[in-house]
Amino acid sequence: MRPTPDRVRETLFNWLGQTLYGRSCLDLFAGSGALGFEAASRGAERVLMVEKNTLVFRALKENIGKLACANVVVRHQDGLEFVRRDTQRYDVIFLDPPFQSDYFPGLLEILPQRLNENGVVYVESGAAIEVPSPWQVLKSGRAGQVWYQLIGLAK
Fold first, then answer.
1. Is 29:79 a contact under the CB 8 Å cutoff?
2. pTM score over 0.85
3. Cα-atom radius of gyration of the chain, to the nearest Å?
4. CA 59 to CA 2: how far, in whole Å?
5. Are 141 and 135 spatial neighbours (Cβ–Cβ below 8 Å)?
6. Do 85 and 113 meet the contact criterion of CB atoms below 8 Å apart?
7. d(CA 24, CA 22)
8. Is 130 helix (H, G, I), strand (E, B) or coil?
9. CA atoms within 13 A on the CB side of 47
10. Which residues of the chain have pLDDT under 50?
11. Hey, where are the domains in the chain?
């Protein structure tokens, strides 16, 4: 598990705005849940976390209970498998799969159907990601070995 560095998380939420009131968020490949919990603490109406690792899933579930996060739900499932079957739409999708995975091409193909109008996807990776059409990079940065981008659908 590789949590999003604090500096990167701060930049991301500056990009998104300080509050996420009324927004629906998907934290795919949730890991530590840092992004999803941060979104919940900033007023997101609904946060859905997806985590495949059983021990990490249990820890997330326990933390949701400890923090009394009524607006956060966690699913025990592979992120790519989940998003292929999911029919919900989201305003913000946090996408931080294992760095060595080859998930990005498949995910970037599926995710346009999962975004609400003006929705955005946060992408974190171990190398710069070239985003294909219909995506466009809205913001990007790098912190050490972490590349991060906020992408949206071209208008």
1. yes
2. yes
3. 14
4. 15
5. no
6. no
7. 7
8. coil
9. 26
10. 1-2
11. 6-153
